[in-house]
């Protein structure tokens, strides 16, 4: 402390000396001259020149004003209000759970997006089911391949987009837009050609990043053979739209929700109020949970299924005997019956593949049982019997191809090029084995051949493996078009209405543009006004006090996860600085230009 | 008048006519104000030296020379009086504070030298020119560092066109100032002070102003058929007389 004070005292003592030095430096040298008459004129002219330099002539003032007005007109009032519109970017749909796919907005040309880009490019176009991914963690090498495939797909997509249409990206994970350069893909695209730049379903809430700020939106419900009535309206707050989805719960006399109707489904059209024909709208298709009969399911497996299905699957614990396999017509086609066999195939029979393996059989009446047998093994080794695209067999009678210890199914697919002939659906998934993510690929006959598939027989070595529900979920989705994991109940189709030829076209078996819920978000019914700016704090009209903190926490989580990149574009004074700098540069240029144009 | 002696010798009558012979007079008015004490050599030395030379030429041609020094006017007739004229110049220069003769020049800060009574050298010179009469020629030697408007009164004092000639003596420092840096300029006559940064632009403007000032005096003299001859204080006398004054009809 004393040191600081001494410095202050020293500074005070040095002030007179500094003042004297300053005076000395500023002192002018006296010079006697015969006459100052001419020098007076010189000084007067110099003063006049300096005053002219300071003076802004009317031309400069006009240029300055024009520049300022031009900049303001170009940036709009958003610059003044501190917000900037989001840059043109492709549709980005964060899919936390399954299929990753690139698709142009018209829905016709699609590029598969998976860690197997060489396959997905060929297959996903003809396979509406596309490729599915494990929602859980990927291994680093798969992450790397996935990154490459994303880049490849974006590159292909940008090449394909000669008309500069934005891309619709459905990805099993949130894409780092900046990292993948997705913005470059959409460069030059008309941002107003798509209604939203991001969609997220949180519980019963739809969050959307709209492309037109403060726009009015309508939610219309599908009616058969009737115009879709508008059941709700909402206004976007800035570029953020939060719409409560209609509750579908049916309450009993006590007000408790009844079990969901397995046959119920609903379809919503969400459109801008000033929507153009076949534009500025998208559709949301809701599917209800699948009822699952798990006869003979062990307790731990049931728990795993419950956890995996997030309560969306109704698991019958009562031993309701399923219809006999030889009489499948009596079955409810909407039910998925699963039977499990344990230990049919020993671990040791799978050569060198570790202790975990999985065998599944899909049995259908319309398909030769032998041909419908699908065996899925860890690391992507699988066999399709009676189908030429046999990759590998765990049947000792077959001659297994070369196996790469530690390799993945991608290696095999790459080497064998996966020449699926005939109608086939491919499901890419991943399982967790011993804590590590292992990709698996499941191949089924196509829809026509799978219509009769009503049973999956699965063999697995360990029941309490976490990957089992994932596999089952993926299989169920492929067979039924419904996603079970994470309570996913929504599909969104971004195609214009004219793209639909019939009601069958909007069947839920088109997951290419599916959006999926995350496991967090505001609880249904929390908000009363229906529209909440997801960036702004949640409104105070939260009626459920006991879940307020949780809802706020979820909302904050959602902000971080889904709108992080949008927040970077949001208004802060820093974002306005470039505008002001540009204005200053223009003004300076105008002044210099005026000075140069002035005659000497 | 009939010339009888010629008639007696030749028998022819010749009529002898006479014209009244008028004495040629030259008025020299060197500026001895403090502003003339600048330069190397000083403008005052150059003006007095030139006055002595012009007086010598006038005396040799039989003209009477009137030299106005300070408030007194000294008159000299006959070339024998040149020494007295030179002495008067030396005395005047010595009174101005210059220690040596004309060859030496220095900046003199003496305050004993009385400034002009009217505050304007051209006004004093105009009175002298007017008092010199219609048959006298006048030569004013000064730096003419005063507004060109004062030239009209001075030239109007001349009784006839062409009888008044102005020799503008400037020092080299005035013609091409070599200042640099920040200065506080002090006028030795008026005491005015000007703060000035001797930037190149200021030097350029000074030269422009000096040319304009000399041009204004020159134009005023031309309108009165008078000669305005600029001269440098360091120019040799013979070169000045033969190169500038004689072609202009002054010498």
Per-chain topology:
The complex is a heterodimer of chains A (600) and B (251).
Chain A: H1 2-26, E1 29-33, H2 37-54, H3 58-75, H4 77-81, E2 91-94, E3 101-103, E4 110-112, H5 117-126, H6 140-160, E5 168-171, H7 177-180, H8 182-185, E6 196-202, E7 205-210, E8 216-221, E9 230-235, E10 240-244, E11 265-272, E12 281-287, E13 291-293, H9 299-309, E14 314-316, E15 336-342, E16 358-364, E17 373-376, E18 382-384, H10 409-416, E19 424-433, E20 436-445, H11 447-450, E21 453-460, H12 467-480, E22 490-493, H13 548-562, H14 564-569, H15 573-597
Parallel strand pairs in A: 2-5, 2-6, 13-14, 13-15, 15-21
Antiparallel strand pairs in A: 3-4, 3-5, 6-7, 7-10, 8-9, 8-11, 11-12, 12-22, 16-17, 16-21, 17-18, 19-20
Helix pairs in contact in A: 3-15, 9-12
Chain B: E1 2-3, H1 4-10, E2 14-15, E3 25-30, H2 43-60, E4 64-69, E5 72-76, H3 82-95, H4 121-131, E6 136-142, H5 150-156, E7 164-170, H6 172-175, E8 181-187, E9 193-198, H7 200-223, E10 227-232, H8 237-245
Parallel strand pairs in B: 3-4, 3-6, 6-7, 7-10
Antiparallel strand pairs in B: 1-2, 4-5, 8-9
Query: Oligomeric status of the shown chains?
Result: heterodimer
| Main sheet specs of chain A | 7 strands, mixed
The rough form of chain A would be described as elongated
- Report the major sheet of chain B: 6 strands, mixed
H/E element sequence of chain B: EHEEHEEHHEHEHEEHEH
**Count of extended strands of chain A:** 22
Helix content of chain B: 25-40%
Q: Structural class, from secondary structure content of chain B?
A: alpha/beta
- Major beta sheet, strand line-up of chain A: 4-3-5-2-6-7-10
Question: What percentage of amino acids of chain A are in beta strands?
Answer: 15-25%
Number of helices of chain B: 8
CA radius of gyration of chain B:
22 Å
> What form of chain B results from the Cα inertia axes?
elongated
Average pLDDT rating of chain B: 81
User: End-to-end span of chain A in angstroms?
Assistant: 61 Å
Instruction: Please name the two chains that share the biggest interface, counting residues whose Cβ lies under 8 Å from a Cβ on the partner chain.
Output: A-B, 19 and 37 residues
**Widest sheet, order of strands of chain B:** 5-4-3-6-7-10
Strand content of chain B: 15-25%
Count helical runs of chain A: 15
């Amino acid at each position: 402390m004393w040191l600081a004070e001494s410095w202050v005292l020293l500074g005070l003592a040095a002030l007179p000396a500094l003042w004297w030095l300053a005076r000395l430096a500023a002192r002018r040298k006296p010079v006697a001259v015969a006459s100052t008459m001419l020098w007076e004129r010189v000084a007067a002219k110099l003063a006049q020149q300096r005053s002219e330099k300071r003076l802004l002539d009317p031309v400069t003032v006009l240029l300055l004003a024009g520049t300022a007005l031009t900049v303001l007109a170009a940036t709009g009032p958003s610059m003044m209000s501190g917000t900037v519109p989001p840059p043109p970017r492709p549709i980005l749909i964060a899919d936390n759970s399954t299929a990753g796919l690139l698709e142009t907005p018209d829905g016709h040309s699609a590029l598969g997006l998976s860690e197997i880009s060489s396959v997905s490019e060929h297959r996903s176009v003809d396979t509406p089911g596309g490729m599915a991914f494990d929602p859980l963690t990927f291994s680093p090498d798969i992450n790397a391949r996935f990154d490459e495939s994303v880049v490849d797909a974006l590159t292909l997509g940008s090449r394909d987009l000669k008309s500069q249409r934005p891309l619709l990206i459905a990805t099993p994970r949130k894409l780092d837009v900046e990292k993948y350069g997705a913005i470059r893909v959409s460069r030059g695209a008309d941002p107003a050609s798509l209604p939203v730049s991001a969609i997220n379903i949180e519980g019963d809430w739809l969050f959307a990043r709209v492309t037109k700020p403060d726009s009015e939106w309508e939610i219309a419900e599908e009616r058969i053979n009737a115009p879709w009535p508008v059941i709700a309206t909402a206004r976007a707050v800035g570029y953020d739209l939060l719409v409560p989805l209609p509750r579908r719960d049916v309450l009993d006399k006590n007000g408790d929700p009844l079990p969901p109707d397995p046959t119920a489904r609903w379809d919503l059209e969400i459109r801008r109020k000033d929507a153009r024909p076949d534009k500025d709208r998208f559709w949301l298709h809701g599917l209800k949970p699948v009822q699952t009969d798990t006869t003979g399911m062990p307790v731990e497996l049931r728990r795993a299924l419950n956890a995996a299905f997030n309560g969306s699957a109704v698991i019958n614990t009562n031993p309701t005997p399923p219809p006999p396999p030889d009489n499948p017509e009596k079955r409810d086609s909407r039910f998925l019956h699963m039977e499990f066999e344990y230990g049919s195939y020993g671990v040791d029979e799978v050569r060198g593949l570790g202790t975990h393996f999985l065998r599944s059989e899909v049995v259908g009446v319309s398909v030769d049982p032998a041909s419908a047998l699908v065996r899925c093994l860890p690391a992507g080794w699988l066999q399709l019997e009676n189908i030429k695209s046999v990759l590998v067999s765990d049947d000792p009678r077959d001659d297994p191809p070369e196996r790469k210890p530690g390799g993945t199914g991608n290696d095999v697919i790459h080497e064998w090029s996966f020449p699926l002939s005939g109608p086939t659906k491919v499901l890419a998934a991943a399982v967790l084995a011993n804590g590590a993510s292992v990709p698996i690929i499941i191949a089924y006959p196509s829809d026509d051949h799978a219509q009769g598939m009503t049973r999956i027989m699965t063999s697995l070595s360990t029941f309490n493996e976490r990957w089992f529900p994932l596999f089952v979920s993926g299989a169920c989705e492929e067979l039924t078009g419904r996603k079970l994991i994470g309570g996913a109940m929504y599909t969104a189709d971004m195609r214009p209405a004219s793209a639909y030829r019939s009601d069958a076209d909007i069947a839920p078996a088109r997951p290419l543009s599916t959006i999926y819920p995350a496991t967090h978000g505001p609880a249904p019914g929390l908000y009363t006004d229906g529209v909440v700016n997801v960036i702004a704090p949640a409104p105070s009209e939260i009626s459920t006090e006991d879940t307020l903190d949780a809802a706020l926490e979820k909302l904050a989580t959602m902000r971080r996860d889904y709108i992080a990149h949008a927040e970077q574009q949001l208004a802060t004074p820093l974002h306005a600085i470039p505008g002001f700098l540009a204005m200053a540069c223009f003004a300076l240029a105008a002044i210099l230009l005026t000075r140069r144009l002035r005659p000497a | 008048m009939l010339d009888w002696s010629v008639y007696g010798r030749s028998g022819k009558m010749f009529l002898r006519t006479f014209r009244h012979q008028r004495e040629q007079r030259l008025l020299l008015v060197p500026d001895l104000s403090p502003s003339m004490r600048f330069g190397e050599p000083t403008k005052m030395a150059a003006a007095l030296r030139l006055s002595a030379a012009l007086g010598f030429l006038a005396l040799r041609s039989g003209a009477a020379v009137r030299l106005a020094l300070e408030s007194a006017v000294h008159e000299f007739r006959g070339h024998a009086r040149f020494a007295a004229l030179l002495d008067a110049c030396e005395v005047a220069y010595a009174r101005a504070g210059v220690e040596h003769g004309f060859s030496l020049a220095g900046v003199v800060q003496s305050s004993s030298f009385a400034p002009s009574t009217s505050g304007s050298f051209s006004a004093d010179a105009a009175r002298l020119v007017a008092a010199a009469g219609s048959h006298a020629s006048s030569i004013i030697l000064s730096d003419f560092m005063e507004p060109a408007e004062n030239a009209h009164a001075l030239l109007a004092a001349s009784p006839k066109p062409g009888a008044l000639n102005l020799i503008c003596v400037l020092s080299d420092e005035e013609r091409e100032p070599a200042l640099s840096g920040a200065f506080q300029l002090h006028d030795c006559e008026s005491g005015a002070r000007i703060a000035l940064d001797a930037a190149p632009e200021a030097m350029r403007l000074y030269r422009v102003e000096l040319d304009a000032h000399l041009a204004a005096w020159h134009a005023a003299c031309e309108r009165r058929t008078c000669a305005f001859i600029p001269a440098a204080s360091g120019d040799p006398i013979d070169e000045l007389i033969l190169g500038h004054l004689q072609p202009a009809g002054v010498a």
